Amino acid sequence: MRLLFMLLIILSLIPSINAQIPEPRDPAECPDFDIPDQDTQCEREQRESSKEIKFVNAYFGSVENNIDKVEVAPNDGITNLVVVLANNGHFELVGFRGWLTLPNGLEAVDGSNRAFDTYDLNIQSGDLIYLEFPVKVKNAKIGWYNAPLYVEYFRVRDQGIHFRDMDIQFRLTGKSIIDAYASEPRLSIGNNQVEVNILNKGSAMISAATANLESNTLAIKDGKTLPLGTIEPNQIVKINPSIYVNPNLANSIQTLKIDIEYYDSYGEKKSKELSIEFMVEGSTNNIDLGIDSNKSIIQVLKDEELLIKIKNDGYEEARNVEVLISNPTTQGVKPELSIIGDGYFLIDSIKPDEEKEITLRLFATESASGDVFELPINISYIDANGGKYDINRKISLYAQGTISLRMYDVSISMIGNIPNLSGFLLNEGTDTALFTTVELVDGVGSQYIGDLDPNSPTPFAIPLENREISEAQIRVVYKDDLRNSHEVILASSVNFTPVQQEVREEEENPRVNQTFMYIIAAIGGIAAISIYIIRRRRQEQLEI
């Protein structure tokens, strides 16, 4: 037993061949050997001092263009994982190197689980450090990952190597792949209600998407910009543009261009150009009824009126026209968008090139905010020969939440000896007001306050040039969920106490009081002397 104990002591004194010494140390301060699997006091102090390196961000992309981050999906192969660090200490650093241990599903280009990179520039205090690790994405799952990072570096005008190990977080976002196709790739002469399918074939969702339609030959009758909202992976969003085809285009192939604008997984704005080809057939019907509406966006929690126009672009009168508009399909669930009334309309007739209007009342619940709905429209009519026909049309509507801003508790406060107009903004709507900025209408002060969530009071403070105001007007600029800009002017009385004037009066009052006391003392002295003289004269007269 004693022999075994001595053997263990001897082995503990032999330095490990593979051990990494983070920094040369003073023999008088630190031991010249390492205890396996145990940090010495010097190592613990070294790790504590090396907390000057802070983790900032990690993303797939490149160091040259860190704004344009790249979406990466499983089995995408070799890509770059950028790790952003910061020099949070007080020293200039050089010789920066990093080793990143990769989680399952990712590996370095050499097949190991450890990637390596260096940063060769001098790093001033406060500078960012970019390490670019080439990695191979294999069968990793979409989501967040933690990965151990070990870094070594030197301080300028200092001896010894410094190091730190930390955990960094990054996300395998998946990749959004957008495509479009028509349910029926054929068009007829006149009006056509086209059903276009926007498909996300990728593994990452897109948000706040819009479709911009364009064609050099086809006439797009309703809005050329249609909202799509959020499209999840493998989800299809349908749009129903109304397209008019000139008779001269019969028996030809025509192209509809679609530009999809959206925000990807990193919140970066992207665009995708697509095109759909249609075969235009010759006209065989003398009645051609098309529909159009005066709006494609409605507000939630509001009784909306939708004006629908039905036009006969054919060559024959349509008689006894019946229009039936149904609620969007909800599969047994209470509809978020519902029609007020029965949705039935009767029109006596629509002559060639004539247009008739009907008014539909709608109501969208708060939960409908951000969704796109399709209203099915069935139109039946009778031609001149008594034949009855049925056609189906659709109208796409985007339900948008409300933003209603109110300002209250407005006063003047001193911040760093600078007068500020301060108060609170309250969003009494249902949607968040994005990228909000407040500024004085009659002044130069402004403040960016970010997003205003519903029912969440948000304070503001705007520097003032003149604090003596009794009423304030501020301009609030924000964006809605479709990134459309809005501006509203809010006015309020200001709670103001002239503190500076009171202080000035208090400074002046002591002088007045002091002068007044001197006058009273002088009058009292004169009166005392007069009384003394009068009494003395009376006494002299009595003695005589």
Largest sheet: 5 strands, mixed
CATH topology of the domain at 2-172: Immunoglobulin-like
Q: Give the number of DSSP strands.
A: 35
Structural class: mainly beta
Assign the CATH architecture of the domain at 2-172: Sandwich
CATH class of the domain at 2-172: Mainly Beta
Poorly predicted runs are: 1-33, 500-508
Task: Give the CATH H-level superfamily of the domain at 2-172.
Answer: Immunoglobulins
- Strand proportion, as a percent range, falls in over 45%
Short structural description:
This protein has helices at 2-13, 41-49, 499-543; strands at 53-60, 77-87, 93-101, 106-108, 114-119, 128-137, 143-155, 161-172, 178-182, 186-188, 190-193, 196-200, 206-214, 219-220, 225-231, 236-239, 242-245, 252-263, 269-281, 289-293, 297-299, 303-312, 318-325, 337-340, 344-350, 355-364, 372-382, 388-400, 405-415, 418-427, 433-440, 446-452, 458-463, 471-479, 485-493.
List keywords for this structure.
single chain, mainly beta, Immunoglobulin-like, five-stranded mixed β-sheet, flat
Task: Describe this structure as you would to a colleague.
- This protein is mainly beta and 544 residues long.
- Among the domains are: 2-172, Immunoglobulin-like, CATH 2.60.40.10; 176-284, Immunoglobulins (Immunoglobulin-like, Sandwich); 405-493, Immunoglobulin-like (Sandwich).
- The chain contains three helices and 35 strands.
- It has helices spanning 2-13, 41-49, 499-543; strands at 53-60, 77-87, 93-101, 106-108, 114-119, 128-137, 143-155, 161-172, 178-182, 186-188, 190-193, 196-200, 206-214, 219-220, 225-231, 236-239, 242-245, 252-263, 269-281, 289-293, 297-299, 303-312, 318-325, 337-340, 344-350, 355-364, 372-382, 388-400, 405-415, 418-427, 433-440, 446-452, 458-463, 471-479, 485-493.
- It has a five-stranded mixed beta sheet with strand order 10-19-18-13-15, with no helix packed on it. Strands 21-28-27-23-25 form a five-stranded mixed beta sheet, with no helix packed on it.
